[in-house]
Amino acid sequence: MSAPFKVIFATRNEHKLREVRAIFTQTPILPVSMAEAGIDLDVVEDGATFHDNAVKKCVAIAAAADRPVMSDDSGLEIDFLDKGPGVYSARFLGESTPYDIKNAEILKILRDVPWQQRTARYVCVIAFARPGEKPVTTRGTLEGFIAWEARGSGGFGYDPVFFLPEYNRTVAEIPPEAKNRISHRAVALSLMKEKLLEINV
Ligand code: IMP
Domain 5-198 class? Predict the structure, then answer.
């Protein structure tokens, strides 16, 4: 068997890394963490789009590590808020504000907004780059609605207020296996897996 092709996945989040590894099992590609690769670099996510941030992160880390890197950026777009909080999803009301407060604020802002105008989506962009090369990117989305009230305790972040009509439940109410099958991250990562296998990394 040939040696695995190690790709640094630019995250410090172990949970995310496990999710990524699960998608790449049965491929020659082995995502490794920044810590495993001995890289300690903070890249400021100041781009105007998920694409800009994901690309900026993987290009900077690939250059610093002199190794191939995959990165991601994701967030929640609410159509009524002109696709906000978008790239500011983590920073909405302040980075350290608990999500029950952020979610309550979203419900308050949308209190009188009718169902048809409560459309929203999770977006994830994955980028891959070798040092000095042009990055390739993929994008995944999960479409839904902002619920009338927060429900469920699974998942994280905005999941209790993100409602999936196909399940008649919020993302925080569906089993984690179901979320990992349909999520914006799963879709973007699966597309990246196909792309990397295609270009024979
Ligand atoms: P990051 O891409 O890990 O930096 O995530 C950006 C932010 O988007 C998170 O801090 C959450 O606010 C939001 N977000 C991204 N994915 C999800 C998700 O699957 N559920 C809930 N919130 C999410």
Answer: alpha beta
